[in-house]
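Fold this complex.
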Amino acid sequence: GQNIDQPTEMTATEGAIVQINCTYQTSGFNGLFWYQQHAGEAPTFLSYNVLDGLEEKGRFSSFLSRSKGYSYLLLKELQMKDSASYLCAVRGNYNQGGKLIFGQGTELSVKP
Amino acid sequence: DAMVIQNPRYQVTQFGKPVTLSCSQTLNHNVMYWYQQKSSQAPKLLFHYYDKDFNNEADTPDNFQSRRPNTSFCFLDIRSPGLGDAAMYLCATRSTGESQPQHFGDGTRLSIL
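Structure:
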């Protein structure tokens, strides 16, 4: 079966660092994406990993270990506007349409 | 400027009354997707087009249909909406290439009376 697991919710303090974990079990693996989704809005693309290791993009970094079926999104210097849902999504078996399997999302609350 | 545009942002329809949601894109992307997303849940893929090739998900109800008359436009038709179809409907596009992400529109929130 196809399964993506993320914590349902997390709370962190403004200015701190938070790590959101994602584990996956899919038929094949062709890349992992992280999206940010504010309430009532569309998901926006944050990062893409297909090889093991860390990808850094400003305050956000994403890590992948394919052998462990594991990824995390690291958010540094948290700001209030980072309060949102963070979706982990995996492209499983190669498919022409690039379909993604989404996790349920981690609701992050940033407190002052 | 918005690149994936969904209209309307909010749609109210009556139980059983057909409704059409629209999506347009200025990105000239090959692939277009329709997702249904209910509160606090993951987006659920309904179907996608790769160019003109239509790909339906196995668990998408027959009540949901789609049309893609050209590269820029894609429509979601709900033939007889039920109360369980109230949700946010998201359109996304993507160009070919393994690393290319999906780009989402702002969504249409559908309410059923």
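The interface with chain B takes residues 4, 30-31, 33, 40-45, 48, 50, 87, 96-100, 102-105, 107 of chain A (CB under 8 Å).
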